[in-house]
Amino acid sequence: MTSLHAIISDDTEDADVTTRDLSWVTQFEITDQHYKDFYAEDITFIKFTAIYIDNTSNIIRTVQDTIFLSIPNILGRDELMHIIKSYSILDHTKYSILGILKYNITLSPHNLKSFLHHKTSTLQLGEEYLTTVHKIDTIMFDKTINIFQDINDLVVIFYNPTIGKRYSHSATKRIRISHVNKTTRKNAPISIPVYKM
Hints:
alpha+beta
């Protein structure tokens, strides 16, 4: 049995063909590196935004952070619970969740040019990538073009109904007990008038 090296060295014409075949592969790999940013890849991190609002729907503060996913494309339930617990307290005040939104841009490389030159406003274009998360569970993200990976976002809206609320003493209902007959207190009926404030 002859070795491959012996076959190639015996036939110089075949050696040129082999060299040419390898050169086009190398050239393709070099050219392919320029387009690597336009291929859809697994998501290893997402942007996280916490929005804190009061009872009059005014935004008090926003906080942004980067979350690295332990499993690509998946934010596990335990990770989500840890994030919610970490960000539910702001300035020693506990907030509850009003809503969770997921922004996952799933544009395919073939549609990139039409997306960039689309005449519709960017607000309308983004609607198809923004979804509401209805329950606290594992959140799946689809692959994203490499140059758009930093746009993927998880938004948690926190709400505290007591912030921004003005307390009024007139909201307290007062009950006053008055006695009809002041001479015989033990047997006198008690009337409880309620005064409106």
